[in-house]
Amino acid sequence: MTRCWPGNPQAVTAMHELAICQALMEQVEAIALAERADHIVSIHLGIGPLAGVEPRLLEQAFFIARAGGIADEAELVIESLPVRVCCEQCGKITDALPARLLCGACGTWRTKLVSGDELQLAHVELIRQSAEEPAEPEAEPQARQQQLN
Ligand SMILES: [Zn+2]
């Protein structure tokens, strides 16, 4: 394979995704440590279309970032979050298209983004194999909700 430096624009984007995955690995490793887990089974992310992250590139970067760590065999599950806007004219919150942030009720452009630009760690599935003491009750999934950016 021929390698070019300074690379193409896509390689730069992948670097961005790789940096996100490395930050993600630090976060899930900290969670695994706190839960005394041995393996991470799956990592669930919620990504809005306006987050500036390409899910396909993020998956590629994830395979690199997970190697050799506690999440070596973990699955990455990406859930696409909806774009929602709050209307400054009629006050309604409606779904919108990423490139067309119009109020779904009255059609005005005067809206504020409510959601759709987030990248969040929604859920981590862990395994604790070396169970020396009885398993503690599962923490509330909501406690795992953390913004990554
Ligand atoms: Zn409206």
Keywords for this structure?
alpha+beta; four-stranded mixed beta sheet; 2 helices; 7 strands; 25% helix; binds zinc ion
Please provide a written account of the structure.
The protein is of the alpha+beta class and 149 residues long. 25% of the residues lie in helices and 26% in strands. It has helices spanning 9-34, 55-65, and strands at 39-47, 75-80, 84-87, 93-95, 111-115, 119-127, 146-147. It has a 4-stranded mixed sheet, covered by helices on one side. It has a 3-stranded antiparallel sheet with strand order 4-3-5, with no helix packed on it. Helix 1 (9-34) crosses helix 2 (55-65). The two termini are 34 Å apart. Zinc ion is lined by residues 87, 89-90, 92, 103, 105-106, 108. Residues 87, 89-90, 92, 103, 105-106, 108 line the site of zinc ion.
SSE-based structural type? alpha+beta
What is the global morphology?
elongated
State mean pLDDT (0 to 100 scale). Answer: 85
Annotated CATH topology: hypothetical protein PF0899 fold
Proportion of β residues?
A: 25-35%
* The top level CATH class name: Alpha Beta
Give unreliable regions as ranges: 141-145
Number of domains: 1
Helix residue percentage? 10-25%
